[in-house]
Each structure stands twice: as C-alpha cells, then as structure tokens.
Amino acid sequence: MTDLTEIKAVARKAAFARRKVAFDARLPGAAGRLSEVLAGHRGVPMSGYMPIRTEIDPLPAMAEASAYGPVGVPVIQAAGQALRFSRWTPEGVLKDGPFGAKVPEIDDYFDPEILVVPLVAFDAQGGRLGYGGGFYDRTLEGLRAKRPTLAIGFAFDAQEAEGLPLEPTDQPLDMVITESRVLTFSA
Q1: Is the four-CA dihedral 47, 53, 57, 60 of positive or negative sign?
Q2: Which of 81, 138, 156, 175 could potentially form a cystine with 22 if both were Cys, beta carbons 3.0 to 4.6 Å apart?
Q3: CA atoms of 41 and 95, how far apart (whole Å)
Q4: Domain spanning 4-184 has what CATH number?
Q5: Nearest 5°: CA angle at 131, between 171 and 97?
Q6: DSSP string, the chain
C-alpha cells in the first residue's frame, strides 16, 4: 500500500463519519438548491445518481429535471472502465446494480452534458474525494474530451475538507451544491 493510498483511506474514514452525522441530522428539502441550479439548464441531458448509504438525496431534483429533458443514472460496466448512463424516470422500473445502487431495468444509454456527482469529501477549490474506484474520474475525462461537461458535486456542508489528497488524474468539479450553498470554481 502506498502512502497516498493510506492517506486517502484516512481522509475517507473521517469524511464518512462527518457525512453520517449530517445524514442523520438532515432536514427535508436538501435538494432545493440543486433544483434551483438545474432549472437554469432545463432540457440539457444530465445524470444524477441513486443515493446509497448516507449520500445526500438528489432524487427530488432529478424528478423535476426529468420533466424537461433526459435524466440518467450511472451504470458500472466493470472495474477500471468508465461509467455509462442509462435513462431514468421517477416511475421507471429499477433493478439492483453494483454497490447497492439501483439502475434502470432496461438499458437506454446516452451521454449526459451535466453530471451530478456523489462524493465522500470536497474542498474549496473543487477537488473531490470519491470512493476510490476512479469511475467518475475516467468518465469525466472521456466526456470532457468530447465536449464541455459540467460536473456538479452534491454533498452535505459537513463533507467539506481541507487538504484533500488529490492526484493529477482526479477530475475537478465545476460546482458543489450543498443543502445551504452553491460553490462555483473557475477552471
């Protein structure tokens, strides 16, 4: 195990603990700011995610966005590969996917231009600490090579951290939306 791997593991453990406290104390309407931001991008193909464990829930904002344009959720293809995004609707039939996240029963893949990204921790510069599989980093790198792609981290305020252990392959977020604020980062 490398030093960076150990440092990331320690940072993840601390961030998971902060996220659990925030999740347990959450109030209704946490996706309100996310809905406000997405309203400015109506009709643009986007993806959200199906929340697992103590992740902040984007489903109300995704449901609202789906009335105006395509909304997808990530589908893991295999370790070491980029994610693909299958069309999701609030009333769509779901099945169990990898890591406990639900995915649409029928695959209907498309490339989103906006990705609402789950995370373990974020920093004030748009850095993101994920779960360690590199799925979103590979995916954002590939999508951004084709065209501009907006990456929006969605998190609880408590998930902000200083001095995240980041690597050159980590894709930056363009924005982080929490239950109380919107942070925008310049490239």
Answers
A1: positive
A2: 156
A3: 29
A4: 3.40.50.10420
A5: 110
A6: --HHHHHHHHHHHHHHHHHHHHHHT--TTTTHHHHHHHHTTTTS-EE-----TT----HHHHHHHTTTS-EEEEE--STTS--EEEE--TT--EEE-GGG-EEESS--EE--SEEEE--SEE-TTS-EE--SS-HHHHHHHHHHHHS--EEEEE--GGGB-SS----TTPPPPSEEE-SS-EEE---
Q: What's this model's pTM, rounded to 2 decimal places? A: 0.94
Contact 116, 49 (CB under 8 A): yes
User: Dihedrals φ, ψ of 34, to 5°?
Assistant: -65, -45
Tens of pLDDT, residue by residue over 61-73, are 999 999 999 999 9
CA-based Rg of the chain, rounded to a whole angstrom?
A: 16
